[in-house]
């Protein structure tokens, strides 16, 4: 690590200065329309003395909106007098992807959440990952990274933490998830944890929580309310913002194995057979994929490999072989 060159990113904020600062992470990016141009990633630092620090992020994927809506709002409204410690807010981590409204970056096709630990001499997306890895994550006592389903998935709204080998950190993660107070709370299993921001934070021993709050490449009034309440609750829980956590009832879900996930084996038009949040029996048909190239073909049935409830579904009406079609989670209580 120490042999890596410095990050090319220059912050226009001072992380050790008290007060509210709105600025940028300036990343040089020379290109056709701007020879000595830069990518300007918005950042807000709110610091009031020594104390715990939180790193709050959205737009890790550029087509997920609850996090950015809650975080631009928080940066504009959080009262310095209410804060003890530091809040670092980056509402649109992969800013080029966020500007384009796409999951990955239009510059290099980089999926920021598969690019960690990143490289200071890599692509634009890898340079962003490297800056979070070496400069921002080490400053955080707690990190909250907002996600939603993006254009291709839709979720029941939940806050989540991972099962971790360190049980003390795991319990702290689940307590922070409870404080977030989404309608659902998830003990989350990753399909593909290599290169994730989550993994980077956890390998650093950080308290890390995340969300999936809807999807479809848009947001809903309810899910944005959940995000706004949740982020304030987490800051209160961490002792950074004054006041009591506004606890709401939540129900815990678990993703006990890879049997949670179903994938399409054919291209076609997807017919959802049950809706999000509804109970599922093992073997039940969750969705059917209809062939569109010809008439008379029987649809492919997607069957649940375990019982539980439908926690996520494919969003667009057309599906391709290999797409994740459904996620079943188990109700814990
Ligand atoms: Zn995401």
TrEMBL record:
UniProt domain Succinylglutamate desuccinylase/Aspartoacylase catalytic: residue ranges: 51-237
Pfam families the UniProt entry points to: AstE_AspA_cat (PF24827)
Keywords on record: Hydrolase, Metal-binding, Zinc
Cofactor: Zn(2+)
MF terms (GO), sorted A to Z: hydrolase activity, acting on carbon-nitrogen (but not peptide) bonds, in linear amides; hydrolase activity, acting on ester bonds; metal ion binding
InterPro entries assigned to the protein according to its UniProt record, in alphabetical order: AstE_AspA_cat, DoeB, N-alpha-Ac-DABA-like, N-alpha-Ac-DABA_deacetylase
PANTHER family: BLL3975 PROTEIN
Protein known as: N-alpha-acetyl-L-2,4-diaminobutyrate deacetylase
């Amino acid at each position: 690590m120490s042999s890596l060159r410095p990050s090319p990113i220059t912050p226009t904020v001072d992380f050790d200065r008290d007060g509210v600062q709105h600025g940028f992470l300036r990343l040089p990016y020379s290109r056709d329309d701007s020879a000595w141009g830069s990518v300007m990633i918005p950042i807000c630092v709110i610091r009031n003395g020594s104390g715990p620090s939180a790193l709050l992020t959205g737009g890790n994927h550029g087509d997920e909106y609850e996090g950015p809506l809650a975080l631009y709002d928080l940066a504009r409204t959080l009262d310095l007098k209410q804060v003890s410690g530091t809040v670092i807010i980056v509402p649109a981590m992969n800013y080029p992807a966020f500007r384009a409204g796409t999951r990955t970056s239009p510059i290099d096709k980089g999926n920021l959440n598969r690019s960690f630990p990143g490289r200071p001499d890599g692509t634009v997306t890898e340079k962003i990952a490297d800056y979070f890895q070496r400069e921002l994550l080490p400053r955080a006592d707690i990190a909250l990274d907002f996600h939603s389903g993006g254009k291709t998935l839709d979720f029941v709204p939940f806050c989540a933490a991972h099962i971790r080998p360190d049980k003390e950190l795991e319990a702290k993660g689940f307590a922070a998830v409870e404080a977030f107070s989404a309608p659902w709370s998830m003990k989350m299993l990753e399909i593909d944890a290599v290169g994730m921001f989550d993994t980077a934070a956890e390998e650093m021993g950080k308290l890390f929580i995340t969300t999936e709050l809807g999807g479809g490449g848009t947001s809903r009034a309810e899910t944005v309310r959940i995000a706004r309440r949740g982020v304030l609750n987490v800051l209160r829980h961490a002792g950074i913002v004054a006041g009591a956590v506004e606890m709401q009832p939540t129900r815990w879900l678990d993703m006990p194995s890879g049997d949670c996930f179903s994938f399409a084996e054919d291209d076609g038009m997807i017919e959802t057979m049950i809706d999000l949040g509804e109970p599922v029996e093992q073997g039940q048909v969750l969705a059917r994929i209809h062939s569109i190239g010809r008439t008379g073909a029987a649809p492919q049935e997607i069957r649940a490999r375990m019982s539980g409830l439908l926690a996520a579904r494919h969003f667009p009406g057309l599906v391709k072989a290999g797409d994740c079609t459904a996620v079943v989670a188990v109700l814990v209580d």
